[in-house]
Design goal:
Layout lengths: L1 H25 L3 H6 L1 H16 L4 H9 L3 H11 L4 H28 L1
């Protein structure tokens, strides 16, 4: 139970860190906000993962020692190659395929 409580504490700290970031963003000019939209979104995704992720005791302890655990997780993520662009390409092609299928069905129905 202690581990679960520590993980909840970590999540709350990360959520508070994100709220501070959000409040800071709201005071910035539009151009600055736009520069940070990707960061904000990924940080939100990290928080979403943290809601259900079960970290080891050692991992939780390391993050709890950090003054900015969410920022550290985000900075680590930015170093990784991800399949994000590949996923986008696949989604675009799938969308086009679905549109073509729908069009072909409509055209076939119109021809009948």
């Amino acid at each position: 139970m202690i581990q679960e409580e520590r993980q909840k504490t970590l999540y709350k700290r990360m959520k508070e860190e994100q709220e501070q970031f959000r409040e800071w963003l709201k005071t910035q000019p539009a151009q600055e906000i736009l520069k940070h939209t990707y960061e904000y979104t990924i940080r939100e995704d990290i928080l979403m993962c943290m809601e259900e992720l079960e970290l080891s005791e050692e991992h939780v302890a390391v993050f709890l020692k950090s003054p900015f655990p969410l920022s550290e997780a985000y900075m680590e993520f930015t170093k990784w190659e991800s399949g994000y662009m590949d996923d986008l390409r696949s989604a675009i092609k799938t969308c086009a395929d679905h549109t073509l299928v729908s069009k072909n069905v409509r055209d076939s129905a119109a021809d009948s």
